[in-house]
Specification:
The complex is a heterodimer of chains A (383) and B (83). Chain A is of the alpha+beta class. Chain A has helices spanning 8-25, 29-35, 40-48, 67-80, 82-101, 104-116, 226-263, 275-303, 309-339, 345-358, 363-381; strands at residues 121-124, 140-144, 147-157, 165-172, 175-182, 188-192, 205-215, 219-220, 265-266, 269-270. In chain A, strands 1, 2, 3, 4, 5, 6, 7 and 8 form an 8-stranded mixed β-sheet that branches. A two-stranded antiparallel ribbon of chain A has the order 9-10. In chain A, strand 2 and strand 3 form a beta hairpin. The radius of gyration of chain A is 21 Å and the shape is globular. Chain B has 83 residues and is mainly α. Classes of the chains: A alpha+beta (383), B mainly alpha (83). The complex binds flavin-adenine dinucleotide (FAD).
């Protein structure tokens, strides 16, 4: 369906992304999930294709993807593996942050390797005591001559097990601040986080910082702008990634369900010939269409810098991830006991869809933000 | 765009963002909690698009963005040429 709204170049990209996902991702995703690992080879292939730096501008050596093309990449990969979209998500957030707000020195040191995928970036905001409520971070950056001493802990950091460069959020003199911290810095340890519900091959980790010394030149943007500017502008891309990845999950859920319905017989007839099952498929297909349109509208708004772009992206993330959860639950239902088997792809879709509703601002948080925008709008117009 | 037209545009946008029709020129929209945490990027995007400026790292100072007056002063300093 999407094809008719895409430019020729977006259509070409979509074709390439889908081909890659069908060949290199989808056949292996269940195995990666069970082993809680993503092979280095697939990360290398994404880098080789330039897709890890897809969002970077051409003058930075990237492919200059517009927001929709970045969305299409996440959608296609998401139809294969939700976990792998986590890599596109966090790596792109770090890369865009440096491209948009980095100093010339930071760009020189990190931008090209990130664009080429020679190093991997991760986004470290969440703490056990501060998730959605990210104003209350307890990670501290304290003056130590021309350096900062970093102390704190971050948890559930996507692809942290293989990342090289971390965008870390904390407080500096009471101000929300973001700092770039390379993996090899003394006092910084990364511990794998296993046994998550979903995103099992997304290499989650806990980060510990004990008197980690980092030059002040690693502060990104300015102290005081860590949350409201650096984190939120990165999360704008993070939410596009999640919203479009949710389209991939919906597509995969629908395809698996239709195939199952066409082959499984009960009570002497195919599931495909049972009214209730057809009804499920009709609902899944309608939700997919609606989700595609809201995602497309949001990324087009972002590309033309419309005033409501940010709100549309929040809405797309909220809506598409919610519908992905509903679709994946129906897919499990249509597969019955087979769908409840951990090694079955639809069970993975179901678990990953739940993650999409929690990350990049939980859906309750999206509602709080969207609700405030709506209230402000109507209180201003007074009609 | 002359100074008063610019001020009108800024005033309208910030009022909408804050959901307050008679927003005072000097009210700090961040301190008073009138806007949510996304306001800063929305505002910067609005300024870059409508006044054809680039907000640089050195411009990152709450004193440039916190009120209608602050934003107008900031635009003045940025020596906006046209729009
Ligand atoms: C697989 C996975 C990957 C992740 N990757 C990263 C990463 O790469 N980097 C990173 O920084 N973080 C990451 N996270 C963390 C994630 O962003 C947080 O889990 C998320 O922000 C929610 O925070 P929390 O877990 O502290 O929930 P809490 O803030 O404790 O909230 C718990 C629940 O209550 C709801 N809630 C909270 N307050 C309200 C309220 N006022 N009204 C209504 N409901 C409310 C929330 O929506 C949520 O559902 C990841 C998490 C997972 C599961």
């Amino acid at each position: 369906m999407l094809n008719r709204f895409l430019s020729p170049s977006q259509n070409q990209w979509l074709h390439a992304f889908e081909q890659f996902s069908a060949d290199e991702v989808a056949p292996y995703a269940d195995e990666w999930d069970l082993h809680e690992a993503t092979p280095a080879s697939v990360v290398k292939k994404l880098a080789h294709n330039g897709w890890l730096g897809g969002l970077a501008k051409e003058e930075s050596g990237g492919l200059g993807f517009d927001a929709t093309t970045f969305g299409l990449l996440n959608m296609a990969i998401g139809a294969g593996s939700g976990s792998l979209t986590g890599l596109l998500n966090v790596h792109s957030m770090v890369l865009k942050t440096i491209e948009d707000w980095g100093t010339p020195e930071q760009k020189q040191q990190y931008l090209t390797p990130l664009v080429k995928g020679e190093i991997i970036g991760a986004f470290a905001q969440t703490e056990v005591g501060a998730g959605g409520d990210s104003k209350n971070l307890s990670t501290q950056f304290v003056d130590d001559g021309d350096a900062l001493l970093v102390n704190g802990q971050k948890t559930w950091i996507t692809f942290a097990q293989i990342a090289d460069l971390f965008l870390v959020f904390g407080k500096y003199q009471g101000l929300d601040t973001a700092v770039l911290i390379p993996k090899e810095t003394p006092g910084f340890t990364i511990t794998a986080k296993k046994n998550m519900l979903g995103f099992k091959s997304a290499y989650l980790a806990v980060l510990d910082f004990v008197d980690v010394r980092i030059p002040k030149s690693h502060i990104i943007g300015k102290p005081g702008f860590g949350q409201n500017l650096i984190s939120n502008s990165a999360l704008d891309y993070g939410r596009i990634s999640v919203a479009w990845a949710a389209l991939g999950v919906q597509q995969a859920a629908l395809a698996a369900s239709a195939r199952r319905a066409n082959t499984r017989s009960t009570f002497g007839a195919l599931l495909a010939d049972q009214g209730i099952i057809r009804g499920y498929l009709a609902e899944m297909s309608s939700s997919l269409l609606a989700s595609q349109l809201i995602c497309l509208s949001a990324t087009k708004a972002k590309e033309s810098r419309d005033e409501d772009a940010l709100e549309q992206i929040l809405q797309a993330k909220l809506f598409a991830s919610h519908e992905a959860g509903t679709a994946a639950a129906k897919a499990v239902q249509i597969h019955g006991g087979h769908g409840c088997d951990e090694s079955n792809g639809v069970s993975r879709l179901y678990r990953d869809a739940k993650i999409l509703q929690v990350v990049e601002g939980s859906n309750e948080l999206q509602k709080m933000l969207i609700g405030k925008e709506v209230c402000n709008r109507y209180s201003y117009s007074a009609v | 765009m002359d100074v008063s037209a610019r001020k009108k545009l800024v005033s309208e946008y910030l009022s909408k963002l804050a959901g307050k029709q008679d927003l005072d020129d000097s009210v700090d929209i961040f301190e008073t909690g009138l806007v949510n945490s996304l306001a800063a990027i929305q505002l910067i995007s609005f300024l870059e698009k409508n006044f054809r400026i680039k907000v640089e790292i050195d411009d990152l100072d709450n004193a440039n963005f916190c009120s209608i007056q602050a934003v107008c002063n900031f635009l003045e300093r940025k020596a906006v040429i046209n729009a």
